[in-house]
Amino acid sequence: MTQKNTKIWREANTERVRASARKGVRKYTQKLKLKVVEHYSNATMECAGCGISDIRVLSIDHINGKGNLQRRKIGVRSGHMFWSWLIKNNFPPGYQVLCMNCQWIKRHTNNECNQKDNSVLDV
Q: 71-75: long-range contacts (C-beta < 8 A, 24 or more apart)?
C-alpha cells in the first residue's frame, strides 16, 4: 500500500484506527502499571495495608503524603505518566503499593485531605 492509499484508508476507517490505537495505549499503560506495582510491592503484587491483590484497585502511594505537590513539581498529571517517571528515575524510594481503600483511609487518618474541614468524613 502506498503512503497515499494508506492515508485514504485511514481516513475512511477512522473508528477502526482509533479503536486500535486505544487498545495499544491500554496495553502499554497496563505494562507500565504492572512493572511499577511489582517493584514497589517487592513482587508480591499486594496492597501493603490489607493484602488485596486485585491489580484494578492497586495504586502507588507517596509514603510521606503530598503526592499531588510532587506530581505538579515533576510535571506529570496522569497515572501512566507518573509510572513512566518512576521507571525512568530508577524507582526512587518513598513509595508503596496501596489499594484505593487503604489510600483513602491513610489520607484521612494522616489528615492529608485537601479540604480545610474534613469532618464530613468522620463517622
A: none
